[in-house]
Request: fold
Amino acid sequence: MAVSTSLATNLLNTETFMGDQVSFTNEYSNMLALRDDSYTTFPLEKESKLGTGDVIRRFIPPTPISPASLVDLNTAVIHRWEGRVLFVDEVQGLMQVLLSDSAGQEHTGEIELQWVADQDQELVKSGAIFYLTLYKQIRRGSTQNSQELRFRRRPAWSKQQIKKIHEDAKMLLSKMQSKPLAE
Amino acid sequence: MSPEIFGSAIVLVGNFNPAIFSPDWLENNGLIGNGDAEEARQSPSFIISRQVSVFETDWFALQVLENQLSLTSKGALSAAFKDLAVGILSLLSHTPIAAIGLNFLAHYRLASEADYHKVGDILAPKAIWSNLYPVENSAAGLVNLSIMIQPCTRTQARTQAPGDVRNISVQPSDKFKYGVFLNYNDHRIINNIERNDQTMAEHAASIIDADWQNAWDDALRVFALIVTRALA
Reply:
């Protein structure tokens, strides 16, 4: 499939489009005369010979790859929930959870800690947020259902963010007035 | 109607330093676990350099160029994917961001060859092409259809600068013999007017945090409508 010139031209400047399912790398590189079949996807330098026999090296910018071509997608979500850990029972190896689906329906349940990935074990505590996804996966022509539990990870507050919060709180407090006492 | 395959990609246009985007950096900042970090370091596509960084785990692939960051989902899609993008932007609060793309793609498997051609014929009627290239010795088929949705009237669309738009495209699926591939791109411009006192990256993070799940739901709604109405 040929990629339109406008798509390729806009790509490096403003385009946030994922790109075609078929990598547009080839067409784009051909259009800009960057393609050299002797190189891998990221040609970092190229040797060229001048008439004098000297060899110079110049850097070729990496060719953008359609993000869609980086992965071979084969899954689709069947149902998804956002969960919150209510209580962790280390002895029984369970966590009591509250699950909410995309329709806003909630229910409680228990999930065995063995289903939590090793790297997420340290995140299992009361109040922690996780995502439970029931999905189907196509593998070698057959479809199988599976589920995944992944805990939410967010970076810690930065000093700047904490400072901003304190400043905002101070500003709000300064605008508050105490209630007049009843006579 | 539900897709057989569904994924997402978040694309950021801005100024990036690819060299800092490493599995270690993500792990040290609490965005991925040690298992994911190790998997990323072992990924076949792993490269960290001044001009490009690429690595992947079983649930995301990251590619960073100097002017574009692309985060693509793999495996089961969940809000953790969005959290990763928000987390990255939170750590780079002073990175200039010009635009965001919230992308969703889907492959729908159709029941028959007749349905497959019906979708193409409804979205791209063939009467003109059949007159130009008679069907006796030519076959005209839809290869790619892209529609841009702008939040204005048609007249205004011709004169005003494009801002936030939705780009929706339809193509034959390369996953299924009789299937349709749909792509939904929610393109947002980051400008100075609406940011209040947030940096560009902070504003971008807040948009992704607030709108990614809504865009997911809207993409599914749009895809299902396109396919079911074309088959009706």
In short: Chain B has seven helices and nine strands. Chain B touches chain A through 70 residues (CB under 8 Å). The radius of gyration of chain B is 20 Å. The mean pLDDT of chain B is 92.
